Amino acid sequence: MDEEYDVIVLGTGLKECILSGLLSVDGLKVLHMDRNDYYGGESTSLNLVQLWKRFGKEDTPPERLGLSKEYNVDMVPKFMMANGALIRVLIHTNVTKYLNFKAVDGGFVYSKGKTHKVPATDVEALKSPLMGLFEKRRARKFFIYVQDYDESDPKSHEGLDLNKVTARDVLSKYGLEDNTVDFIGHALALYRDDSYLDQPATDFVKRIKIYAESLARFQGGSPFIYPLYGLGELPQGFARLSAVYGGTYMLNKPECKVEFDENGKAIGVTSEGETAKCKKVVCDPSYLPEKAKKVGRVARAICIMNHPIPNTNDSHSVQIILPQKQLQRKSDMYVFCCSYSHNVAPKGKFIAFVSTEAETDQPEVELKPGMDILGPVEETFFEIYDRFEPTNQNEDDGCFVSTSYDATTHFESTVIDVLSMYTKITGKEVDLTVDLSAASATE
Prior knowledge:
It comes from Zostera marina (Eelgrass). This protein has three domains: about 5-45 and about 230-290 and about 390-425, FAD/NAD(P)-binding domain (3-Layer(bba) Sandwich); about 50-105 and about 295-385, Guanine Nucleotide Dissociation Inhibitor, domain 2 (2-Layer Sandwich); about 115-220, Guanine Nucleotide Dissociation Inhibitor, domain 1 (Orthogonal Bundle), CATH 1.10.405.10. It is built from 14 helices and 19 strands. It has helices spanning about 15-25, 50-55, 85-95, 120-125, 135-150, 165-175, 180-190, 200-220, 235-245, 325, 365, 370, 395, 410-425, and strands spanning about 5-10, 30-35, 45, 75, 80, 100-105, 105-110, 115, 225, 250, 255-260, 265-270, 275-285, 290-305, 320, 335-340, 350-355, 380-390, 400. A hairpin with a 2-residue loop joins strand 7 (about 105-110) and strand 8. Helix 1 packs parallel to helix 9 (about 235-245) and helix 1 packs across helix 14. The longest helix has 17 residues, at about 200-220. It starts with a strand and ends in a 17-residue tail after the last helix.
């Protein structure tokens, strides 16, 4: 391989595929390699037989579960915010033409032992059983403030400079109770812990606005959308994009060893005795474990069921967030459910995931609060996997290592990582001010 590439990307996880697409569109010469013979890496989708194999089950899946090929079980299940960053990236790159999306039926939050729909507007706040009468009125005023807030219009600020006051200050101005603060922070603004309360309130208010705008886009029961046939379609969509702009893809390349010069800078990648030269390397932590450190673990259960989750209005697709305080834990728990309505399972079958940041070595015990709200389950698979973050200095070694996928069931944190890597590689920012009406591929 005598050619020199601007960037060699290792691994076809979703983050790596999005980056390779964005860099190819930018005119960079990209070679994309993977040691596996399939797309998706850690974020692949499996059929039933593959799922059985992955979890080391000896026998074959029982016939009552239906045909293996009708299953597309995501290994990193996440919904997309209809107005969020990933949709903007998809429209910016025109990858929407390779995919079909469908709205997700419901967004719910667990509070005081029960599952409730997440109220995201002043109208929903007044109907919500999450709050008593007086609290509903206070919440309604808060939601009206957020809906009307416009950065460029001081009249809408109600005397609050969101760059100076904290989220806690804004919430206390409306006198909201702890349980209300809990669902607003974790189920609407989608924070993973309570540290946001003492940060400037700008990000907090923006996040709630994105949730409410996403909810309004499809007039559905949730702000989320999800591709038909699961997330396995996404890496392939970005791979096609990269190929259209001259990117080269090679699957099934064993080893993929990154080569460094005497100063420790990446200069190429060797596989099967051949070295491809490059200026920069992008990869997931499994390709350069010496440049990453373990920062936590995710505990997860994958469940196959023959019914929707109880108390979710018979939703065929749903996200439920169980805030940490409600469970006396240090981290939130997430329930993701999808079904045959998104073509990820045979008719009548539902796939639910329960995930959280692991705090013990016993996922069965730790995930019990989330499992308890699912109702009867036909098959369950438990696992714990490590999460890694890069430790290297990009400018010194020319290596850009992604962070592992977290326990959240939405894509906001994933896209933040991708966009930050893109900026480090190119020195530019992706323009996400796109016309969202262009997302006509969405049902």
